[in-house]
Amino acid sequence: MALVDVADLAIEFPLYHHNARSLKQRILASSPLRLKKDEDNRIVVAALRDLTFRIGNGERVALVGPNGAGKTTLLRTIAGVYEPVAGTLRVEGEIGSLIDPAAGMDPLLTGRENVVLRALYRGLTEADGRALADEVAGFAGLGEFFEVPIRGYSAGMSVRLSFAMATAMTPAILLMDEWFLAGDSDFMKKAETRLSKLVTDAEILIIATHDMTIVRKWCTRAIRLEGGRILADGTVDEVLGAETVT
Ligand SMILES: Nc1ncnc2c1ncn2[C@@H]1O[C@H](COP(=O)(O)OP(=O)(O)OP(=O)(O)O)[C@@H](O)[C@H]1O
């Protein structure tokens, strides 16, 4: 049974470590809501504040809201990239993340080596890891680039590799940022079937998106964030109404 359970969660990003006093005063004066001073007298962005929700088995959740609302930060927090400054986060089930293409990969290793390493990390045998790498190579279509260190990849190549890798295994909890759906059109046509299967097979899907067509197609629930807080949480129809874009 997969579960994401969040209570009173807060994430902050320090912006200024040094003592730029007059600048601090000006920033705080012009933006009193989202920027604040922490106990070490640094200016921080309150990226997420007072978040409480629970996502259980079978739920397909869209995170919606304007630029800077906190959608990607929330995905990364659930993925374990950021440590909350307050509150609790409980995740049960293996996470597959389509958020940052090169996350968790070693830039000095080749595409193939990265896949095998990830497979070993997930408890597969080396033979299974090698078989998985062949499968990923076939789908990613990187040709000879699969055999070079990934620091030499273009942004699109990194997306192809991480997409192929993430969709070759079925995670219990799938986290996805919508820009992962914006690869070149030939690749995305090929990717769609594979992605649909992954979305269906995962026990929990959480996707951050501005595209209400995606929300209506894939999701059963929507959480609207604004200014790092939850404004609404309910069924897609309740939260979106007649909306098509945010
Ligand atoms: N690494 C960081 N350092 C400092 N501030 C950050 C960092 N990442 C995000 N923020 C801030 O946190 C807030 C939430 O950003 P986030 O990227 O989560 O928003 P979003 O809803 O995903 O926006 P978008 O729709 O534009 O992708 C914003 O105010 C942003 O400036």
From TrEMBL:
The lineage of its organism: Bacteria, Pseudomonadati, Pseudomonadota, Alphaproteobacteria, Acetobacterales. The keyword Transport applies. InterPro entries: AAA+_ATPase, ABC_transporter-like_ATP-bd, ABC_transporter-like_CS, ABC_transpr_TagH-like, Bact_Polysacc_Export_ATP-bd, P-loop_NTPase. Belongs to the ABC transporter superfamily. The keyword Oxidoreductase does not apply. It comes from Neoroseomonas marina. Pfam families: ABC_tran. This is ABC transporter ATP-binding protein. Keywords: ATP-binding, Nucleotide-binding, Transport. Residues 33-245 form the ABC transporter domain.
